[in-house]
Amino acid sequence: MTRSATRATGRAALRSSSRCLTDNRNRTAGEVRATFTKSGGNLAETGAVSFMFDHVGVVEYDAKVASADAMLEAAIEAGAEDVVSSESGHEIYTAQDSLREVAKALEAKFGEPRKAALVWKPQNTVAGRATSRARSCSS
């Protein structure tokens, strides 16, 4: 299996980054290209999109686990860089190299998180509408 990373530009200059695990890189690239083309987008050149994303650690908890203030305080003590709390839950962002330590400290206080992983976080976000054209790169 091989990892494949694709950057693309969509409608209204929307930038996207996708990662796929595949046994055939050429087939996957063709399918990703076709999906973006059908949606009015196109593949971008190497480096054209990646600078708009930060590779960070994220730890997620359900909102019922703690109040926004309690989560913020615990995250700061654990060494996190940012906390975003909403009705759907808490997202605690940290540097890549401190993800493990922050996750363990928060787990000791709040229990097991629903997610703890390295992610590509966009530096800017825009509200969009969901479409039925989203696909998996699992083929």
**The CATH H-level homologous superfamily of the largest domain:** YebC, transcriptional regulation domain
Main beta sheet: strand number and arrangement?
4 strands, antiparallel
In percent terms, what proportion of residues is strand? 25-35%
Low-confidence stretches at least 5 residues in length (pLDDT < 50)? 132-139
Q: What is the count of structural domains?
A: 2
Number of strands: 7
Number of H/I helices: 3
Strand order of the largest sheet: 5-6-4-7
Which class of secondary structure composition applies to the elements?
A: alpha+beta
Shape field: elongated
The overall pLDDT, averaged over residues, is: 82
Helix content estimate: 25-40%
- Oligomeric state of this protein: single chain
What is the name of the CATH class of the largest domain? Answer: Alpha Beta
